[in-house]
Amino acid sequence: MIGKKGKLLLLCYMIFLVVLFLMCSTDLIIREPEQEIYQIAVIIEDASDNNYGNFRKGMDQAAMEFNADVRFITLYEKLEPNQQMEFIVREQQDGADALIVAPVDEGKLFEALSQKQITVPMVLLGCELAGEEIIGSITSDYKKMGQEITSQMLRRKPQDASVVIFSEREKSGMAGQDFREGMTEELVRNGCAYQRIYCSENGDLKESLQKAMDLCKGQIVILAESPEILTQTAAAGAEDPLFLERVCGLYGRGSAIPVLNYLDRDYITGTCALDEFSMGYYSVCMAVRALEGLESSNSLKMDYYYVEKEDLRKKGYEKMLYPIE
């Protein structure tokens, strides 16, 4: 038998256990360490995210792993530098802890950095600039990429085929300019004549394609300056019964799903692709590491890969081109 004193001690012990349980369950004693959620804004140079599909997958993967809230922002008008600078200032004012930017105009961005208009850490995509707030950059050699795609084209081009470059009419980003410079230098170095056609800005390349066919006799090889032009040319070709008869090669850069689909259907002959999933992942990783005060590589040079139809289902390329988060 338990005496009154024993019962009282047992009651007190049970009450103590209940109180201890309640304190633990309400984090009064054991508190979970609070993880800071970093606010990161990604501002690209384009009005559409069509060419950023794999980049966004990598970005989202890193955001999940590193506890970041990442906003992906497109411009209202493609390659509009003033608008991009407005968005950079706006995102700072709205509380972004870091920025990831694909610059439209390196000069304007450098000027803003010099005038201390940018006060949060920034990762650059596609270019390298010096500045106190620049914590890293992810680039590729687009000029060498242009030389590579042209070299591949020249190896496969029929001797009597005419070469045509499809270019942006007015605006062209830094990557496009470097890519075009690489293409033209390789053509000149090999003594290959070429025509240059400026494409319509409305996205319909049927007129440009017809102009190329009218301008050149016999077969044509087309080099596309940008991923958009590459996709739009293939789309126009898919609707033209003479395309596969007259155009014996269409080359460019990019690895968006429409590009890969047209490559698989033989409307695109070859493309130079980057590991864009890794670009998105590492850009967020760089930003978070800087915010946490950790050292990270401040410059990452991405390799490019020449891809043809038969490469699409090779294990190494398949993982890069069709990443699974």
Features:
325 residues; alpha/beta; six-stranded mixed beta sheet; 12 helices; elongated
Major sheet size, sense and barrel closure: 6 strands, parallel
Average pLDDT number: 87
Q: State the end-to-end distance.
A: 65 Å
Number of helix segments?
12
Could you walk me through the main structural features you see in this protein, from its secondary elements to its overall organization?
- The protein is 45% helix and 18% strand.
- It contains twelve helices and twelve strands.
- It has helices spanning 4-25, 53-65, 81-93, 106-114, 142-156, 174-189, 206-215, 227-238, 243-246, 257-264, 276-291, 315-321; strands at 38-43, 68-73, 98-101, 122-125, 134-139, 162-167, 195-198, 220-224, 247-253, 270-274, 299-301, 304-307.
- The chain has a six-stranded parallel sheet with strand order 2-1-3-4-5-11, with helices on both faces. Strands 7-6-8-9-10-12 form a six-stranded mixed sheet, sandwiched between helices.
